[in-house]
Amino acid sequence: FGAELEGQVAIVTGASSGIGEATAQSLASRGASVVLAARREDQLEELASKIEDEDGDALVVPTDVTDDEDIDNLVESTTDKYGRIDILVNNAGYMPLTHIADADRETLQTTIDVNLRGLITLTHAVIPTMLEQESGHIVNISSVAGRFLMANSSHYNAAKAGVKMFGDALRLDVAAEGIRVATIEPGSVATELMEDIPDEELKQEIEEYGASMRPLRPKDIARTITFVATQPDHVDINEVLIRPLDQV
Ligand code: NDP
User: Rounded CA gap, 106 and 61, in Å?
Assistant: First the structure.
């Protein structure tokens, strides 16, 4: 691999596992300094050590994306250390699929808070730095669930469709300032995400669906995000829908 991202700084949320972890490793392998954000500090420290062992550069900033103070601290810690933010990968996610009648309000609210409100708040917090730089790249992780409806998923479908709409509308406001916005829509990826499904029967059903195909691996999405982030400045990949071959 080349070092196309040398000198660039990338914040990755949800970097403690799955797609975020693989993405941070991939961006670091291309030379970016990566800022690792999620709640599980131990996992982030472990990842930072791995990246540093491979001569990469990582900064750990424990962050709950539903907490506005954490968001501000993440941005300040990044600019204090590096003085810039080139790439923001808004990847943190929460998928407690359930029938609306079985959901409690906290579950519904947290689904919106993690997947959508946190993503918008963090984007809002990095925009001034990107405007000052007259460059930046925001990569938002939506889902097939942002485009195709599923039963027991109304709150998650709404959040992920919101991510897509937010990104496309944001582009209208910031493209002229040199800021690119991409929406990534993965299909089934083998990660810990299903563990948040509260209903055991539904969780089993979804796990069986995942097992019926060769799912994507976190690295497959990391490779896609890295492809998007390493395009020349004038190339703005707006949207990538990426599914396992077996998921039609
Ligand atoms: P994981 O469960 O492995 O990753 C989810 C990440 O989000 C974790 O690192 C978790 O870290 C973080 N997270 C959850 N809540 C918060 C919070 N309040 N504040 C900060 N970070 C938080 O699953 P994936 O890698 O699969 O998920 C990554 C993204 O991909 C999500 O947005 C998901 O919706 C999306 N996606 C996944 C698909 C799949 O099939 N797996 C398909 C389509 C989209 P921690 O717990 O340490 O805070």
Answer: 26
Nearest C-alpha to atom 39 of ligand 1 is from which residue? 189
Q: Is 156 a catalytic residue?
A: yes
State the DSSP string of 19-59. HHHHHHHHHHHTT-EEEEESS-HHHHHHHHHHHHHTT-EEE
Q: Which residue's alpha carbon is at the smallest distance from atom 17 of ligand 1? A: 64
The total number of residues shown for the chain amounts to 248
Residues whose beta carbon lies within 6 Å of some atom of ligand 1: 13-14, 16-20, 38-40, 63-66, 91-95, 114, 141, 143, 186, 188-189, 191-193, 218
The amino acid that residue 58 corresponds to is A
Which CATH architecture group holds 9-232?
3-Layer(aba) Sandwich (3.40)
Residue pLDDT, tens place only, 205-248? 998 988 899 999 999 999 999 999 999 999 999 999 999 999 98
Q: Are 137 and 182 in contact (CB under 8 A)?
A: yes
Give the integer Cα–Cα distance in Å for 119 and 93: 9
